[in-house]
User: What shape does this take?
Amino acid sequence: MTTIKDIAKVAGVSVTTVSRALNGYPDVSEKTRQKIIEIAKQLNYSPNTLARSLVMNKSKTIGLLVSGMNHSAIKDNFTFEVLTGINDYIAKTDYDLILFSTNSTKQREKTYSQLCRERRVDGVILQGIKTDDPYLTEVVESDIPCVLIDIPIQSDKVGYVTTDNVLGAKKAVQHLIELGHENIAMMNGHDYAFVSKQRLEGFRQAMEEANVAINDDWIVNGEFSEEVAEKKALELFSKHREITAIFCASDLMALGVVKALKQMGLSVPDDVSVVGYDDILLASYVSPSLTTIAQNRFQMGYEAASMLVEMLEGKEAKVVMLRTQLIVRESTKKNQLLKGRM
Amino acid sequence: MTTIKDIAKVAGVSVTTVSRALNGYPDVSEKTRQKIIEIAKQLNYSPNTLARSLVMNKSKTIGLLVSGMNHSAIKDNFTFEVLTGINDYIAKTDYDLILFSTNSTKQREKTYSQLCRERRVDGVILQGIKTDDPYLTEVVESDIPCVLIDIPIQSDKVGYVTTDNVLGAKKAVQHLIELGHENIAMMNGHDYAFVSKQRLEGFRQAMEEANVAINDDWIVNGEFSEEVAEKKALELFSKHREITAIFCASDLMALGVVKALKQMGLSVPDDVSVVGYDDILLASYVSPSLTTIAQNRFQMGYEAASMLVEMLEGKEAKVVMLRTQLIVRESTKKNQLLKGRM
DNA sequence: TTCTTCCTCCAAAACGTTTCGGATTCTTTC
DNA sequence: GAAAGAATCCGAAACGTTTTGGAGGAAGAA
Assistant: This one.
């Protein structure tokens, strides 16, 4: 493997000159620069990033700490879409991505900052970690530039990108209310996700502003899982047949809810309206297709990468909040009971 | 950032001893080892991988060169599932993954081996590149350990993992033949994919062994794209209404074909049977659900990672061929014309 | 002519590790 | 008590870069 020394030797100059020639410094004559470049090509030279990073104290790599890259994430490929967005931006820069594979066991062994410092990443993007994750506190404490996805924590060195979950949920619930529903339930995720809290808040706001009573028994947690949501929905609807609409904090859970309702012989949307969140691919393919809140996950990744790179170039950490969009499909409908009453 | 020197200073020993203590060499007394470990903890030391890699001449990173991580890959998330498998295995080792973001422009700028040598990766996994990609020739020429996914090239340092595409396609077509179909078309991918060639070969074998005539006009390329396949299917079926079954080299194209048939007022499976390949998530959700050949993409990634790590530990490059499985759903049916004839 | 300035170039230090070859001390053996 | 051997430790080189501070010479200014 040819080094800068080899080039220096055959060019008859010092390694300093080679380095400076190759890096475009002005204090080397054009003649020798051309000679050096020529020789470098001939010797098939490529610089050793490790050595460079070591001395420059920056590695031109950004770490990607995702949790939720597992077998079960295929239906809801949030992670992948975000990753695609990140990759898309990074491809235009001279950074490379390093993927920290954090299964749960490894996570316990090495701390967040250990991971980052060992590999000397210049910055990190975090996605999919829960609010009780020990990494989270480390992130703010450590001084490594970092951008979070869907986690509203900000400091000097950490920014985040998210969507307006409160407004998104509000739009979903308002849609139900406009359809004449009054007995509205909510299938939330779990308490360890910021988005859950925010979507619950949006739910409350929409209900209160429309003067619709909130029944706390009708708010249950589906753990963002299709199966759990299905089970919980079975319980919920067998106890409370009066519910005519349900807002789910994810499409995946909405799928589970629809399954449960079908099992009980209830029709979606004739008996119960269901609205999801995410607009996953399946949402438009299942039957009935899902009314849902769309968020552009690709863009989230793209913005996150963009922000991080900007931060590495000296700009300040900031907050990016993306728009969501209500997409009305087949799973929601005018309240049938209401029609009867009128 | 604390270094080995800092530890040496407070422990009152040399850096050599610190290094050897931390790395478990036997020529340091248990007493000083404990002392050093204790101090390292207190100083919150984490080793600098860059420095280590530089001197040891291996980086404990493996490169991931995927093409096809783009916006349009979301339906058919082959790449993501493979990636998940790779990540799953890698998480159990002390390697990290570095994702080479190769959009087409960057690809032209830097050669394959340049990418690898700059980052000093120990090995590479390649996925999703076409047969005419310049990287491919470089791979075999370079002496970097490498495993390919779905590309049957082997040498001293390069192995591959794939599925038995010939057999898979054969099973699909045999299924159609068993259903009584004789006028069978094929929607292939494109000429720059190995799997296309192999699946075509499987198609031919099945037809020949069953003594069913092959009509070369009925074999068209859909570029692995839903839209292109739709267009091509429209052309094909408007010219040749006698076709009663079609084998598609991917589920995505099968979706396009089904769309085209619906547009033409033809029923799947009553008028035309369609079988796909891949068993993507959508296959079981669309209506009619797709009969298809399932391949375990997660396992492909897992096996690839496993093979590469083994190679890095001295074992030989090898070939892994995984099984496929015919999954019969709603898009295939007994040939109706045949029924009439009987 | 001499002094200053600019253009090229270079030696050496630094980054944080690992490892080779030896040096010291301690224990054992005769 | 001395020689031998084992157990511990260490100095220095090496990995491939970048960068600092200056050296040498040529050109311009006085």
About this structure: Chain A is about 45% helix and 15% strand. The CA atoms of residues 180 and 335 of chain A lie 5 Å apart. Residues 13-17, 20, 26-29, 32, 51, 53-57 of chain A lie near DNA strand C (CB under 10 Å from a C1'). Chain A touches chain B through 50 residues (CB under 8 Å).
